[in-house]
Amino acid sequence: MAIVLAVDLRGGDHGPKPIVEGIKRFLSETDDVEVLAYGLKGDAPYAEGVHRLFFRECSEEITANEKPTMAVRTKKNSTLVKAVEAVKAGEAYGVVSPGSTGAVLTAGYLLLGRIKGVKRPMLAVPMPTLTGEPFVFGDLGANADVRADFFPGFAILGRVYYEAMLSKENPSVYLLNIGEEEEKGKQVVKEARELLESYDWFGGYVEPHQVWEGGYEVVITDGFSGNVFLKTAEGVSHLVTGVLKEEIIKGGFLTKLGAFLLKGVLGKMKTRFDYKTYGGAPFLGVKGLVMKMHGRSDEVAVYSAMKVMYRLAKADIVGRIEEKIASGGE
Amino acid sequence: MAIVLAVDLRGGDHGPKPIVEGIKRFLSETDDVEVLAYGLKGDAPYAEGVHRLFFRECSEEITANEKPTMAVRTKKNSTLVKAVEAVKAGEAYGVVSPGSTGAVLTAGYLLLGRIKGVKRPMLAVPMPTLTGEPFVFGDLGANADVRADFFPGFAILGRVYYEAMLSKENPSVYLLNIGEEEEKGKQVVKEARELLESYDWFGGYVEPHQVWEGGYEVVITDGFSGNVFLKTAEGVSHLVTGVLKEEIIKGGFLTKLGAFLLKGVLGKMKTRFDYKTYGGAPFLGVKGLVMKMHGRSDEVAVYSAMKVMYRLAKADIVGRIEEKIASGGE
């Protein structure tokens, strides 16, 4: 039986066209998937004549500047709400949207609800390391304020995601902190550590500069620190390449020749840090697979996000989370 | 009258030798400074025969693995405690140590106490940007748990440091957050924003990926997020250069030639991100100038830290903080 995936064509920075292009590319490589694409009236022609792509017309969209809760509650016929409702109705296994993080999380949370036993769903993503083995990192910002008792749930969600995404069993979980000693860090982190100590798979604290070395499979933190971590990493990698570019422009002929010869290497480096490689971040712990992709997503990013969603659907990530949460993380 | 600065020769990863070398280099460029160097008996020969360098023998040292409060309280004759006491006694204007952050902050806090009106001292440092203009960033980790009413104090400390360090008046202060809209972020940040709104120089929220663009003079946050920010930036810049190096090693002759031609540029890039450029971070808000330098500090880093301390001493940063705090930040 075909896997059905829903895609919200609206809410992205570049409109529906690159999204449909990404879907087409993805569909051309798979034969057991159907895609439901939720767009506005004028978007229909993009999707026309594509095998296994079904266009669903909606009458409104949620834009980046709207207050999420209000928008999701009042715009019942928006592309985002309709796409998430397809998951709720069992028509689609999962949904991906380029809309604002707030709107996507709110729609997932309000329309699908939490999986029983999950205190707070979290947003997670794989991050690159020096060894090439990614680590799973969350929460990326769904929970700016946290309690210590949220953390065992975050850990279990991260573990299931790691297993489904990277096909490796029994990953260890580390708690992000600003020192390795027990007495270091803020109160909520120390309390979370105490709660996590009872699990075999808990590996202790890890610091933000260590995670890139590889070997830390799953790293969890509160949504505020997680978002600071993600955006700092993004900012610094841009800064480093920006400064490099600037120095090359200022340089003489030999510097420019050197840059030309290194073009392939610099390109490869970019790929390794590019969010497009994974395309999207799942909102783990709600009753259905909900993924947020970057607002700037282009064809490649959408294609990658679809591949990730396909993989997570095949692994039945929602069912796995239900099982693991029910068994208390064992 | 000469400015007197105290230096703790112990607690660093490479022993006292590179520290004394850094002091010598600094002294050779100034003629109105005297340095008091606190070391163990065997360290005396390094400092011998250097003009304006006075060796002070101590009988013990505080090592990296000791609990800070216990160590500072019981090791009364350690190099760190003696060096900080020189500031307390008015013998030296400031002190710099390569010891553990915990030990240096504890010694500063317990032995010197807070400046009247400062709720919590903070650790701050200048960070690089794409434009070349640095921004002042704190708290780097002195206050893992915070209350909203600490933030106006952090802002004033950051402003005074910016003015003394960069010789520019009236910088704006921004509050680190994970979104720009008022309703974004964690509770304590929203409350801090409300308190900061009453100051002319408050510029609002800034996100961790934006600060590198330049134009944000002073950026403040809680010590946990600040330490995550600092260590993520450090980790990612190592990761990017590590991956670049790895790709060059894997590459063929032309790639290696390209790397050779870009050597100067890559070196310049390293300098721009190197902590050695500023050498040390002051612990602002205690009654005296206390600076922490990196445990891995080599001659160049020590030299830079001495220059920063000299500059802050000349600007009488402690007196300026007292004034600004007394006048409520106006």
Mean pLDDT level of chain A: 92
Fourth-level CATH superfamily of the domain at 1-118 and 285-330 in chain A: Isopropylmalate Dehydrogenase
Could you give the order of the helices and strands of chain A? EHEHEHHEHEEHEHEEHHHEEHH
Rg estimate of chain A, integer Å: 21 Å
Cα shape of chain A? globular
Residues in β-strands, percent of chain A:
15-25%
Number of contiguous helices of chain A:
12
Q: Give the % helix of chain A.
A: 40-55%
Query: How is the quaternary structure best described?
Result: homodimer
CATH architecture of the domain at 1-118 and 285-330 in chain A: 3-Layer(aba) Sandwich
Largest binding interface between chains: A-B, 61 and 61 residues
Strand line-up of the largest beta sheet of chain A: 3-2-1-4-11-10-5-6-9-7-8
Description of the structure:
Chain A has a domain at 1-118 and 285-330: Isopropylmalate Dehydrogenase. The two termini of chain A are 31 Å apart. With 330 residues, chain A is an alpha/beta fold. The first copy, chain A, has helices at residues 17-28, 44-47, 68-74, 79-88, 101-112, 151-166, 187-196, 223-250, 253-261, 263-273, 299-314, 317-326; strands spanning 3-8, 33-40, 53-58, 94-97, 122-127, 135-138, 173-176, 202-206, 218-220, 280-284, 289-293. Chain A has twelve helices and eleven strands. The first copy, chain A, has an eleven-stranded mixed β-sheet with strand order 3-2-1-4-11-10-5-6-9-7-8, with helices on both faces. Chain A is globular and about 55 Å long. The interface between A and B is large, with 61 and 61 residues.
